Amino acid sequence: MNTVFDKDVKYLPGVGEKRALLLKTELNIKTVGDLLNYYPYRYLDKSQIYRIRDIDPNTSTHIQIRARVESIQALGERNKKRLRVIVSDGSGRAELVWFKGINWIQKQLEAGREYMIFGKPSFFSGSLNLVHPEIESTLGAKEKFFPGVIGIYSITEKLTANHITSKTIFNTICTAWQAVGDEIPETLPRYVIEQYGMMSLTEALFNIHFPSNNANLNSARFRLKFEELLGIQLNILSTKKKNEITYKGFIFKTVGDLFNRFYEKNLPFPLTGAQKRVLKEIRHDFLSGKQMNRLLQGDVGSGKTLVALMSMLIAVENGYQACLMAPTEILANQHLEYFTNLLSGLGVDVELLTGSTTKAERNRILNLLREGEIKILIGTHALIEDRVVFSNLGYVIIDEQHRFGVEQRARLWMKNTEVPHILVMTATPIPRTLAMTLYGDLDVSVIDELPPGRKPVRTLHFYDSHRLRMLGFIENEIKKGRQVYIVYPLIKGSEKMDYLNLEEGYEGITRVFPPPEYTTLVVHGKMKQAEKDYGMKMFKEGKANILLATSVIEVGVNVPNATVMVIESAERFGLSQLHQLRGRVGRGADQSYCILMTSVKLSKESRKRMEAMVETTDGFELAELDMQLRGAGDLHGTQQSGMAFELKIANLGKDGQILALARETAILILDKDPLLTNEDNRKLRILAGKFTTDKLYDFSMIS
Ligand code: ADP
Ligand code: MG
User: Fold this and answer.
1) Fewer CB atoms inside 10 A, N or C side of the chain?
2) What does DSSP assign to residue 403?
3) 529 Cβ partners below 8 Å, 6+ apart?
4) 26-62: pLDDT as tens digits
5) With a 6 A CB cut-off, is 334 part of the ligand 1 pocket?
């Protein structure tokens, strides 16, 4: 271990206790190594030095001059103060102006001295003006590191308030670099570096902070991104290998009488091609002798539940029990109803266990379960409690998987001495690259086809100024006997305002659709789960025309009679969330509509999102676009990050190719050395260890 690299930043010249504390609390920078691993988020090209006379008055980019201070003048009174500095470089004069931080700037400046000056030029009656330029003395030790391209480091408000700027960070990194020398410990084995002709870590870190040209910067970025993504892939895939070595899977050999009777007598419609393919993939796993760990992705309404049911029949037929865990009571109830209907006459005992199951009922179920009488158990979190003991659990399905943590999944594993097969289902479309990172240890099946006869939801975009048209539209649908959702955003940090909006919305709606003629229900996140479930149940049973809700509307709830989804302030939602919400309608035979309400003023990006929603109903296409627009690291805006580790430099939206390369590399390495125990791979073991986390799957998209 390199001692300087691990040293507290406070020992660096110019840092000290106070700044070190700020760096730690604001940027999580504790050691010199952390500091060197804090990368610029963009760069400014300062390679060219302009002569004042040569500057084009029409230029709109920042420019840099090297000029001597002729005079410094503080002008004006009190809050109208400004600092005026005249500089000259022999070819001409320029005026520098500051309105803020005047005292501080004044201390930095000395008449007669020469400075590098960087800023955006403007011209007043032919003379060059720079407002709030960056200045740097051309003297001093930092000259050595004064590069052509300057990194800009992101900082926080609190840091700015304490005079820690991007430039401070840059200067501190210069100091750190001198302290570390060439002793940065390499984190990748030589053979990996050579395989791709990559930069060493030392070179990469040098070039990420002090790039001398674009080619070097790109090589540095490649090396650092690759390393990050390789670490994640090694972690995920070696865990998977370890599990494969540790656990054998049950073999479900028979597909016999029960399955066939269901297929011939009970199945109400032909399976889609995609459903058939996924069943085949599951069946293949059932026969492999390895434990299945499979993710089933499929858009809302694509028929995942049926696949779940049919694959459970195979488990049952082979003498095992199966269970299905749903995130809410209402979903669990919905599944029970669905299973009971479809399985009627087949003699398979299906039961429901949730938090509100009565004690007597629970005892009855637990007894039957232990005796193996219950073949299929459906439930909520209640399933993972210790008192729930199966006689021979062989197959576990988790619905809407993003709602559960990996820990909950693991607890279901432990319900048998041998691990059961696992299928996790999600309607949240996850872009390929993200799936590879978040769910890299799962095999992935996709239902990419909707059952025939579905009418795609039509999406309309209205500005708030056209609210009356929207109201007229829903009135029409209600007259036809249909039901309507109206959803309000709920964004962390502005919940209070959001609830106010919801309240106002309720008043507005009940004015237009007054009781008792119309019934409007409200469901939001501050209500207790039981209250929410009750509201949803009423709506599902057709006892209300309109459901007003925050974005907590339960995923997967099926109300075929609801044909309109109005999304208020739609610009505040991410694409994936908009798509999820739209999926609440279009579940019946009638034409359904999604209405996006936004203000007229929209950012370019929001406009793109609205256009995409209007144009396509393909969830995966939208998810890819969403990630490109926002970058995967940046999905927290609307509570959908959930990534347990932070990517410092790789961007899953943009670095798909590097990710694929990293994954391929990881697979090759692990084929030869599954647990990274070879001495050659010692560094890789450490790298993979950095990404260990049990929150890896907590991809909560919906609040
Ligand atoms: P999700 O994938 O969102 O969980 P569901 O399993 O709830 O979707 O299915 C939505 C609806 O589509 C259900 O009413 C289901 O019975 C129906 N369905 C499923 N598969 C088919 C099929 N192959 N043909 C016609 N309808 C189907
Ligand atoms: Mg479902």
Assistant:
1) N
2) G
3) 328, 329
4) 999 999 999 999 999 888 777 778 899 988 877 767 7
5) no
Per-residue pLDDT of 587-644, as tens digits, reads: 888 899 999 999 999 988 899 999 999 999 888 888 888 877 766 544 433 233 345 5
For the four alpha carbons of 490, 494, 500 and 504, in that order, the dihedral sign comes to negative
Site to probe by mutation for ligand 1, drawn from 275, 305, 338, 592 as the one with most ligand atoms within 8 Å of Cβ, is 305
Among candidates 171, 75, 59, 72, which has minimal Cα distance to 123? 59
pLDDT at position 542: 95
SS3 316: helix
Q: Is 684 exposed, middle or buried (0-12, 13-18, 19+ CB in 10 A)?
A: buried
Decide: 559 in ligand 1 pocket, CB within 6 A: no
| Both tokens assigned to 331 | 């979903």
Does ligand 1 lie within 6 Å of residue 271's CB atom? yes
Q: For 99, which DSSP code?
A: S
CA nearest neighbour of 614 among 598, 601, 628: 598
pLDDT digits (tens, 9 = 90+) for 388-411: 999 999 999 999 766 566 666 677
Q: Whose CA is nearest to atom 10 of ligand 1?
A: 301
Q: How far is the CA of 601 from the centre of ligand 1 (A)?
A: 39
Neighbours of 560 (CB within 10 A): 15
Q: How far apart are CA 661 and CA 655, in angstroms?
A: 10
Tokens representing 203 are 């070179």
Residue 553: which pLDDT band, with cuts at 50, 70 and 90?
A: low
Residues in the chain: 703
Tokens of 655: 């670095």
- Adjacent-strand bridge partners of 324: 378, 397
By 3-state DSSP, what share of the chain in percent is helix, strand and coil, each rounded to 5? 45, 20, 40
Q: Please report, for residues 78, 153, 155, 189, the alpha-carbon distance to residue 161 in angstroms, rounded to integers and kept in the order given.
A: 20, 16, 11, 42
Query: Residue holding tokens 């889609």?
Result: 272
Cα(86)–Cα(64) distance, rounded to whole angstroms?
15
Threshold 0.85, pTM exceeds: no
275 lines ligand 1 (CB under 6 A): yes
Q: How far is the CA of 331 from the centre of ligand 2 (A)?
A: 8
Asked whether 269 lines ligand 1 (CB < 6 A), one says yes
CA 330, 335, 336, 340 dihedral sign is positive
Rg of the chain over Cα atoms, rounded to whole angstroms, equals 31
Short-list 362, 356, 420, CA closest to 387:
362
pLDDT tens-place string over residues 457-495: 999 999 999 999 999 999 999 999 999 999 998 766 677
Distance 587 CA to ligand 1 centre (A): 9
Residue 208 φ/ψ, nearest 5 degrees = -75, -30
Among 325, 306, 312, smallest CA distance to 286 is for 312
Ligand 2 center from residue 626 Cα (angstroms):
23
**Taking 50 as the threshold, does the pLDDT of residue 702 lie above it?**
no
Cα separation, 597 vs 164, whole angstroms:
42
Mean pLDDT over all residues of the chain?
Answer: 87
Beta bridge partners of 447: 298
Peptide bond into 270 cis (omega under 30): no
